[in-house]
Amino acid sequence: MEDKRYLCIDLKTFYASVECVERGLDPFKVDLVVADPSRGKGAICLAISPKLKAQGIKNRCRLFEIPDSIDYIIAKPRMKKYMEYSAKIYGIYLKYVSAADIHVYSIDECFLDITSYLHLYQLSPKELAKKIINDVKESIGITAAAGIGTNLYLTKLALDISAKHTKDNLAFLDEDIYKATLWHHQPLTDFWHIGQGITARLHKLGIKDMYDLAHYPEHILYKEFGINAEYMIDHAWGVEPTTIQDIKRYRPKSNSISHSQVLFEDYSYEEAMLVLKEMIEVTLIRLCDEHLVSNQIALYVGYSQNIRKGSQGSCKLTSTTNSCQLMTHEFINLFKRITDPSYKIRRLAIAFGNLQDELFEQYDLFCDPEALAEEKKLQHTLSTIKKRYGKSAVIKGMNLLPKATTLERNKLIGGHNAQ
Asked: How many Cβ atoms from other residues are within 10 Å of residue 391's Cβ?
């Protein structure tokens, strides 16, 4: 079997780099942060330029954490612009590799299976990686780094850990090099899929690095971490059997659609119910677009300042539907049943489970099929109009109420300013 070779390409300080390119500036020579100044000094910086990083400023810092002695440019987030740049860069990847061999991990990071292309281009993995990232730099103006590896896990580590210490922003890992160079690397949080919580649990077991994890009694790890111990042990040895083709073939046994909001301020019981209705409508339009129906709903209500544990509940419906009328009725009943009206509310999350094709739509004896058919026509019409003219082309009266959030959120992508 042919040895696999992967690339993991990361666009360095992507949002900040885009803003610099748009201004004709060099991100390595200018102090720039991407943040929304309207949110005050506590606003989180989505990205900072490499020059700021070199001065010890941490990425994802807040504006007040940047010393007053630094004169920096503030660029308001423009998520639509970043998505446009990301799409252009993806187009460059397609010049070298088929879409079937690319896995988009995030807006600024992609995995590429280059195994079958090395012979075609008569290039080494490092030469092909350089060719691609040089093309990105010359065509778009964005600097990229790349990890090269024999499996997806080692490729990611080559990018995240090893490439940071090379002049050309490239690094290669196979299992032997991984053991020789990273088995005793600390902290554990530098490793893919190991966060602060897992690190703390590993430390309690006396595990300080990946060597310790690789040689720890497996039965204890399975007792502590359950089925997740399997991939933790594999990763400790530098093993990852999953391929990009496996990822693309994967289909979940059960699926759901969810939608959540952290509210702009503390909301009363009645105000939160208004936002809940908006969220239901937005999500059901998506279900209609994808021709899906559901008979399971779930709701989470988070209270202000964590003054008490959030409320959550779910229920199975007697109908399998995507009717906004029926679903809103069920969600409001669930909201009234689980929510404590004496506390202010700061977060809402809804989910529709057991999604099925519209062919499996079913109603109970108390439904009016003709009325529901008319409602569905209206939902599809609204969806068509919004796709053509924008999300706010058609709005309801409730969207204009003082505490409504839909109109404001329609201006956002990923919770940040779209334009």
From this structure: 16
